[in-house]
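Notebook p. 47: complex prediction with heme C.
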Amino acid sequence: MLLAPQALRNALMTLRRGGRLVLLATVLLPSHSLFGQLSTEDHLAESTFWPTQGCESREGFVGAAACAKCHAVKSSQQESTQMALNMMPASASEILRGHSDLTFAVNKYKYKIENAADQSNYSVSDGTKSLSFPLAWAFGAGRVGQSYLFKKDDGQFYEARVTYFANLKNLGFTPSRELSSPSGIDEAMYRPVGQAEAIRCFSCHATASTIGGHLDESHLIPGVSCEACHSPGRKHVLAMDGMLSGKPGTKKTEIFNPAHLAPTEAVEFCGACHGDWWDVKLSGVKGVSSTRSAPARLVTSKCWGKGEARLTCTACHDPHQQLKTESVEYDEACLQCHVNSSGAKPTASHPGPACPTARERCTSCHMPKTYVPEMHSNFTDHRIRIVRSGEPFPE
Ligand code: HEC
Ligand code: HEC
Ligand code: HEC
Ligand code: HEC
Ligand code: HEC
Ligand code: HEC
Ligand code: HEC
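Predicted complex, structure tokens below:
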């Protein structure tokens, strides 16, 4: 990933030191900086629970099956979301099981993933030499693509240089990792992933993966499960068991409920993994690639104003359910704020003006699908706006 020029980064860091943005920032930075309060790093430095946070002990986690006992509907729905299914041991990947061979070739390098019933072998040949390793973990439910990590004899993680893309129905370069002239077969095949980076990958794609500052590969829960968003649940289960059996004295629910967050925090909560405004700013990612970060884009919409409960992520998405893919299913969310008959004027409860063009399918025109080349796929631009043909991508 590209980094912002060091000078800018330092300036931003200094401004943010000590917590929330102060008014000073409005003088020194474009008004944009008001779109974000804290970066994920800042949230993680606070004492309250925040997604991707590590834990001292694995004991606090109970797993989704334990939650299902009392929250049956939420649990059965959440299990089938892309978030829950977004990573797995390579041996459990349906994409890999569904293809006997996946191939890719660039110059003299020929890449191959060969899949047997319970193992996938990743190999590269340069015509004279070849290397081969079994894949360990698969990342990505497959709506867009799936990337792979494996280990060599040194016990370290390596990222395969190639990724499966749904739209190519085959392999391509791993996003942002394209190499035109690798130094040799090793570099052509993989990129070393250090411990700190591996911890970050797993913390966004799995649950209970960082224990005592280390990656706990053998006990992690693959995918984004209940406790990734609600904090470890053992105390809650005990407290609720007690409450339901009539034990006196149980008042606290002992679990994190994001429903109580203020609007900006609620968006930054999902941004812990999806990238909030500060995360994207500090990473230096710009242009169409930033549409992968819904939280960063959403808050730059005029609709957002200074932060609005009617426009947080959960106003449109139930994180316990599958993504709705019909534009008409999102109209209700827009019409919480927009008046919707011709000539109607905005009101106190509906501050948004009426559309002069249409009465339904609002997102189909105002949240355009944007092609992100390195992902070989479209992402939905969450910067709600009037789209003018030929305009440059609005940063
Ligand atoms: C023994 C039954 C039981 C189990 C098991 C259980 N819950 Fe609950 N949960 C409840 C009850 C009852 C409430 C409502 C408590 C109240 O409103 O006082 C609740 C409330 C919650 C809330 C809202 C808390 C709040 O403060 O508003 C969340 C979030 C939650 N549960 C998540 C989970 C998760 C995640 C798991 C699994 C780790 C889980 N629950 C397991 C019974 C259970
Ligand atoms: C612990 C990390 C994490 C958190 C927190 C998180 N997400 Fe996600 N989310 C992911 C990952 C990883 C994916 C990619 C799944 C895939 O396609 O492989 C994803 C995918 C999604 C999708 C696309 C689903 C699809 O069917 O393509 C939606 C919508 C989404 N998240 C909404 C949310 C919302 C809303 C929140 C906050 C309430 C949230 N996420 C919080 C990690 C997270
Ligand atoms: C800060 C959290 C975070 C980190 C760190 C992270 N990811 Fe992701 N990743 C996400 C989220 C959220 C998505 C879904 C949105 C998107 O595609 O950008 C995603 C999407 C993906 C996808 C595409 C899946 C799809 O179908 O949309 C792949 C593949 C992937 N990540 C692999 C990795 C690998 C491998 C690493 C580590 C080298 C990694 N990610 C690190 C949060 C993260
Ligand atoms: C991607 C993050 C995410 C995951 C994963 C997730 N939740 Fe939630 N959950 C939320 C958010 C956000 C809310 C608050 C919803 C709102 O604001 O309406 C919530 C609310 C809840 C509530 C309280 C509802 C209320 O009325 O206040 C319960 C109970 C709950 N979740 C249970 C679960 C269980 C059980 C699982 C696993 C099967 C789970 N959640 C997985 C994000 C998540
Ligand atoms: C005003 C409604 C609205 C809000 C608010 C909203 N989304 Fe979306 N989101 C959509 C629509 C519409 C789609 C596209 C659905 C489709 O056609 O597949 C989408 C798609 C997505 C996807 C799938 C990948 C993509 O780009 O198409 C992810 C991930 C996502 N949203 C995350 C979030 C997060 C995180 C938030 C909070 C910052 C959020 N969304 C807020 C309407 C909304
Ligand atoms: C929280 C309330 C709220 C929600 C929800 C909301 N809007 Fe808005 N929207 C507004 C307000 C208020 C304005 C006028 C802002 C201004 O002029 O500064 C606005 C402005 C707009 C504009 C004009 C932007 C421009 O560049 O001039 C469009 C287009 C728009 N909204 C579409 C939508 C669509 C589509 C949705 C649903 C996906 C939606 N809005 C959801 C409050 C909202
Ligand atoms: C077929 C595409 C399309 C659909 C569907 C659509 N719009 Fe629009 N909308 C436009 C265009 C184009 C404009 C700009 C019109 C102009 O400036 O002449 C616009 C303008 C607007 C504006 C700015 C009005 C103003 O007075 O500044 C708002 C707000 C808006 N739309 C909201 C919505 C909402 C809410 C919906 C769903 C009920 C919706 N739109 C559905 C294309 C669409």
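Notes: The radius of gyration is 23 Å. Residues 1-32 have pLDDT under 50 and may be disordered.
Next step: compare against the earlier run before touching the bench.
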